[in-house]
Specification:
Low-confidence stretches: none
Number of strands: 9
Family: Belongs to the plant dirigent protein family.
Subcellular location: Secreted, Extracellular space, Apoplast
Oligomer: single chain
Shape: globular
Subunit structure: Homodimer.
Largest sheet: 8 strands, antiparallel, barrel
Main location: secreted
Keywords: Apoplast, Secreted
Strand order of the largest sheet: 1-3-4-5-6-7-8-9
Structural class: mainly beta
């Protein structure tokens, strides 16, 4: 068979280094209000409150949220979370989103690396922490898996603005 007729190469067993576990804590600032929002609604359903609600059911948002060391607005920025989320609950008192985001680090030990999350996030649950799945990563977090425990530090249900604490447990090679 001619070399150009094959679309794959030989399969060899992977020789991976020992798996590592890294734990990181940071705060994600999701701002829908004001002159410089970090989350913007790009679509919404006409039948579910539409533009009258900051986080109406069926609304799709794109994000470029800062990641900081502390919960304060002017805390040291260490990266940004870029991605999307959709409001997936009709009852605002049970506000839930489904989100995909790449949480990229732009300074320090993990500069140039990121973790990717994709999961359901029941934002309105105030009891305890919520868990979000880590489904991948880049750089030092290549082939990542794990979970993020999310705790709402502050949320304004009128504007949708929120500060969330992320405690990530990342398994990677």
């Amino acid at each position: 068979m001619a070399r150009h007729e094959s679309y794959y190469g030989n399969t060899k067993p992977a020789k991976l280094n020992e798996e590592k576990v890294t734990r990181v804590r940071f705060y994600l600032h999701d701002t829908l209000s004001g002159q410089n929002p970090t989350a913007v609604r790009i679509a919404h359903a006409n039948l579910t409150g539409g533009s009258a609600s900051p986080v109406g059911f069926g609304s799709l948002f794109v994000i470029d949220d800062p990641l900081t060391v502390g919960p304060e607005k002017h805390s040291k920025e260490i990266g940004n979370g870029q991605g999307m989320y959709v409001s997936g609950c009709k009852d605002l008192s049970k506000f839930t989103i489904v989100m995909y985001a790449d949480l990229a680090f732009t300074t320090g030990k993990f500069n140039g690396s990121s973790i990717s999350i994709f999961s359901r996030n029941p934002v309105a649950e105030e009891v305890g922490e919520r868990e979000i799945a880590i489904v991948g990563g880049r750089g030092k977090f290549r082939m990542a898996r794990g979970f993020v425990k999310v705790k709402t530090h502050k949320i304004d249900m009128k504007t949708g603005d929120a500060v969330l604490r992320y405690d990530a447990t990342v398994y990677h090679y």
